[in-house]
């Protein structure tokens, strides 16, 4: 049994989602403090609920982001520049008040920057994004269609990797030296990808892709009030995060570090 994505999120133009994520990220990279990141996270949860995002795919993808954020924070906690009271010291490891605060800020900031991209693009089809970039963002059709074609072929890399492994095992060259086998197989995969890309480019040129300065699109990509409201919500989140951080005195502009 399959389920369809909620209309509140899926009906939005992917370009509006991209702009919203970029606005939030641009505001959060200006400062390294936990107040602005936490403020943005709280407001992003509200946006997530308003868009009625499916929880299961969102939680699966956000688990990877949370793991990466935790590992980054752990590294900063142990090896960050010490300041204030040092709670633990061992060789190059220094856990201090400053490293704890910076680790917390980094953890929240990675989540606040990455999570909007996760729940905004959880149900976006590559073709819909290409339609939006070509019709709304007015990017060159040659670039958009080439990127779409390359994105569509990413799924074949996994199959090629398995087939290469089977072929090498059949020839008896993959039984020993696992590191060397992996390096050789990765190089062969790269060669396959380059050859496939060349063939795809030739086929697209033969079908007239890029032959004319303008082109038609099979499906129109609309941009209206809902998209403007989403971008406005992103601007509000960014402005609120900065305002709360400045008001509490936690603002720490990256240019002053």
UniProtKB/TrEMBL annotation:
<keyword id="KW-0812">Transmembrane</keyword>
<keyword id="KW-0472">Membrane</keyword>
<feature type="transmembrane region" description="Helical">
    <location>
        <begin position="100"/>
        <end position="122"/>
    </location>
</feature>
<feature type="transmembrane region" description="Helical">
    <location>
        <begin position="18"/>
        <end position="51"/>
    </location>
</feature>
<keyword id="KW-1133">Transmembrane helix</keyword>
<protein>
    <submittedName>
        <fullName>Energy-coupling factor transporter transmembrane protein EcfT</fullName>
    </submittedName>
</protein>
<keyword id="KW-1003">Cell membrane</keyword>
<dbReference type="InterPro" id="IPR051611">
    <property type="entry name" value="ECF_transporter_component"/>
</dbReference>
<feature type="transmembrane region" description="Helical">
    <location>
        <begin position="228"/>
        <end position="254"/>
    </location>
</feature>
<feature type="transmembrane region" description="Helical">
    <location>
        <begin position="58"/>
        <end position="80"/>
    </location>
</feature>
<dbReference type="Pfam" id="PF02361">
    <property type="entry name" value="CbiQ"/>
</dbReference>
<dbReference type="InterPro" id="IPR003339">
    <property type="entry name" value="ABC/ECF_trnsptr_transmembrane"/>
</dbReference>
